[in-house]
Design brief:
mainly alpha; N-utilizing Substance Protein B Homolog, Chain A; 6 helices
């Protein structure tokens, strides 16, 4: 069971903070996970754009974008179980985002997961 002291949860919180900060200034001391996400950010952002066409990337709330980037990276580039990725992303949305963030994050990740967004089309 996940707790606030779970090291994986703490690592995700740190990553979201780093990705959020990256939107304002280059983070030279970023973690390895953050660097991997940023290395794949073009592909990740295209997937987010296709899953949420009504909200362009440049108009997204920056914390929502940071959470989505982490979630999409974990879904597509790691072996983390899908249920864990989505649950963590929704929890991060509740912790850092607005009232609508958890449902928005859940919807975008769900659309990507359901195959509405294919990497081959990117």
């Amino acid at each position: 069971m996940k707790t606030a002291k779970d090291p994986r949860h703490i690592k995700r919180i740190k990553t979201v903070k780093e990705l959020f900060a990256q939107g304002f200034t280059n983070q030279e001391n970023a973690s390895e996970l953050t660097k991997l996400i940023l290395k794949n950010v073009k592909t990740i952002d295209e997937m987010i754009s296709k899953a949420a066409p009504q909200r362009p990337i440049d108009k997204l709330n920056r914390i929502d974008l940071a959470i989505l980037r982490l979630g999409v990276y974990e879904l597509k580039f790691t072996s983390t179980p899908t249920k864990v990725v989505i649950d963590e992303a929704v929890e991060l949305g509740k912790l850092f985002g607005s009232e609508s963030t958890p449902s928005f994050v859940n919807g975008v990740l769900g659309a990507i997961l359901e195959g509405k967004v294919h990497e081959e089309n990117i």
